[in-house]
Each structure stands twice: as structure tokens, then as C-alpha cells.
Design goal:
Largest sheet: 8 strands, mixed
Shape: globular
Radius of gyration: 20 Å
Distance between the termini: 12 Å
Pfam families: GHMP_kinases_C, GHMP_kinases_N
Catalytic activity: 4-CDP-2-C-methyl-D-erythritol + ATP = 4-CDP-2-C-methyl-D-erythritol 2-phosphate + ADP + H(+)
Number of strands: 14
Pathway: Isoprenoid biosynthesis; isopentenyl diphosphate biosynthesis via DXP pathway; isopentenyl diphosphate from 1-deoxy-D-xylulose 5-phosphate: step 3/6
Helix content: 25-40%
GO molecular function, one term: ATP binding
Order of helices and strands: EEEEEHEHHHEEEHHHEHHEEHEE
Family: Belongs to the GHMP kinase family. IspE subfamily.
């Protein structure tokens, strides 16, 4: 049984991310790829409320406030098939709570309610942010007394992208993206995020990159992060960042969703400094000169194309507790 000082509800938030650069190495024997990437947390936050249970069950539910509740993928016939967010042990937030419970050697149950504000299957790490927020919320709910660094270490067992939303900010990522070097930044960068109507499988996009390289006779090299880009991000030099942004997964993502290329062209025509696909896609991100330019760009895109264009800024802070209420 819990003592009286335990919380009954804890809500935590964790940011989505974009990759301002993503370089991909050759396919490894274990089926993964080494990468060199620049993670950049943005001001779209997943929220997870952890509520204490009297039994040992873990449950998952989506909040009615969620902006995104499912994604759509093309089937063999070219139609769109809806893919719902899993509300069972296949959800990364569920796995985060279960892993933390094992590490703490406790049998507490918890109801997890997720408010999704990051595009689903959009290359922005929404599922990883859910897991990060669940770790922070459950850690507080169960009075674990863990540091941010300890939570990030546990997060690494859930996936390569999960530690970053714990830390937030900007970071260089190596290995499979799990070896993080936080960057000291000053100032902000402003972007416009354009969610796609379709979803893309991350392993599928990596596989398409391997196929494209094989067909073209290109031997993948060990990936490296551009030092000039790192300096530009740290100093919030938007114009320099625009010249150095890169994504090896952009071409295979566009090969599967050709409309992404057109959307980036429209963004450039409407005043964006640069546009690339975020991560494995299919979300498009457009870099703007400043906050006012990002807001104006989003308005123009929505008027011209009827897309949902979301102005965001970064580097955003890492996972944190929003509210905690006693039982």
C-alpha cells in the first residue's frame, strides 16, 4: 500500500523532435544503421497523466484533447488504411511504465492517459516522447527519487530515440542515435511543421534507402555530423543552418510519398529559408528566419494548400512535471 504522501495523479510533458541533420551509415549485421544526427526538441509536447490504481494493472487511454489519434498508410491497392495508436502493451508508454516498475521492484498499477500533440508516425518521435513523459510521471507517482540522467539511462532500454526527449534541448546523436552529446545553445530557431495525411514505417524507409544505394552502386560511408552545422545551431544562425540541413532518409521518404517534394517547393516559394523531411518522414519541416516569419509562413501555407501548418520553436526543454495532485 502507498503511504499518504504519494500522489494520486501526476501529469508530465515531453517534447517532440526534428532532425536538423540525419546521416545514415551502411546496414549493420544486426539490421540497424549507425547514424550521425542533430536532434532538436521543438515546442510540441506530448502529455501523459499517470493515475494510481489499487491493483497492479497498467492501462493506456487517449485523451479527448489529443490533436492526433491515428495515422494512415497505403495498402497494396493504393488505398489508405487507418492505423490506430495501440492501447495495450505494444504502446511505448506502457512499456516505459512496466520497465520502470521492474527496475524499482514494485508492483504498483497505473492508468496512463496520453494527450498526443505530435504527429503520429511522422518522424518526430511522438511515441518516444510518450515513453519519456510516462517515465517522468510514474517516477514521481511512485516517489522513485530518480534523476533526469537516471531516467534517460532507463529510457535507452526502450529505444534509441527515447532518451532525447527526457533531456530535450539540442544534442548530437551517434551510434544508432542513442549516444547523446548535449549542445550548449543560445537563441531560438523557428520552424513550421506540416503533418502528412499518410504515415511511414521507419524500418521501411531505412530499407528503401539501402535499396536505392544498392541500385545506384553507392557504398555508404561512416556517417559524420557537420561541425559547421553544430556551430550554426548553437548560435541560432538560421541562415547558416538553412544551408547545412540534410537528411539521407529524405529521398526514400519522397519515393513513397511524392507530394512531400511539392510541399517543400511550396514552402520555399512562400518564404521558407529551407525545407526538409523530418527524420524518416513524412512530416515536412520548414525553417523560417524568425518567429514572426514562421507565423506568417504557416498562415500562407494554410491559405494556399489547406494543410495544417504548425509554427514551432526550439530548442525546447526536456520532459518535466506539469501537475501533481495528492491522492
Amino acid at each position: 500500500m502507498r503511504d499518504s504522501e504519494f500522489f494520486g495523479h501526476v501529469t508530465a510533458a515531453a517534447p517532440g523532435k526534428v532532425n536538423l541533420s540525419l546521416r545514415v551509415g551502411p546496414l549493420r549485421p544486426d539490421g540497424y544503421h549507425d547514424v550521425a544526427t542533430l536532434y532538436f526538441a521543438v515546442s510540441l509536447y506530448e502529455e501523459v497523466t499517470a493515475s494510481a490504481r489499487a491493483d497492479d494493472r497498467i492501462t493506456i487511454a487517449l485523451s479527448e484533447r489529443s490533436a492526433f489519434t491515428e495515422t494512415f498508410e497505403s495498402d497494396a491497392a493504393g488505398g489508405l488504411v487507418g492505423t490506430a495508436i495501440p492501447l495495450d502493451e505494444n504502446n511505448l508508454a506502457y512499456r516505459a511504465a512496466a520497465l520502470l516498475r521492474t527496475r524499482l521492484d514494485v508492483d504498483y498499477g497505473v492508468d496512463l492517459t496520453i494527450t498526443k500533440n505530435v504527429p503520429v508516425a511522422g518522424g518526430m518521435g511522438g511515441g518516444s516522447a510518450d515513453a519519456a513523459a510516462a517515465l517522468v510521471a510514474c517516477s514521481a507517482l511512485w516517489d522513485a527519487g530518480l534523476t533526469r540522467e537516471q531516467l534517460a539511462e532507463i529510457a535507452g532500454e526502450l529505444g534509441a530515440d527515447v532518451p532525447f526527449p527526457i533531456l530535450g534541448g539540442a544534442a548530437a546523436g551517434h551510434g544508432v542515435g542513442d549516444q547523446l552529446t548535449p549542445l550548449l545553445t543560445r537563441g531560438e530557431l523557428h520552424l513550421v511543421i506540416i503533418p502528412a495525411a499518410t504515415g511511414l514505417s521507419t524500418p521501411g524507409v531505412y530499407g528503401a534507402l539501402d535499396d536505392m544505394r544498392l541500385e545506384a552502386g553507392i557504398a555508404a560511408e561512416d556517417p559524420e555530423l557537420d561541425a559547421d552545422l553544430v556551430r550554426a545551431v548553437c548560435s541560432a544562425d538560421a541562415e547558416m543552418v538553412a544551408t547545412l540541413m540534410a537528411n539521407d532518409l529524405q529521398a526514400p521518404a519522397i519515393s513513397r510519398v511524392p507530394s512531400l517534394d511539392e510541399m517543400m517547393d511550396i514552402g520555399l516559394h512562400e518564404g521558407a529559408l529551407q525545407g526538409i523531411v523530418s527524420g524518416s518522414g513524412p512530416t515536412v519541416m520548414l525553417l523560417a528566419r524568425d518567429g514572426a516569419s514562421a507565423a506568417e509562413l504557416a498562415t500562407r501555407l494554410q491559405e494556399r494548400t489547406d494543410v495544417w501548418a504548425i509554427p514551432v520553436s526550439g530548442p525546447a526543454h526536456g520532459a518535466r512535471i506539469l501537475t501533481a495532485r495528492p491522492s
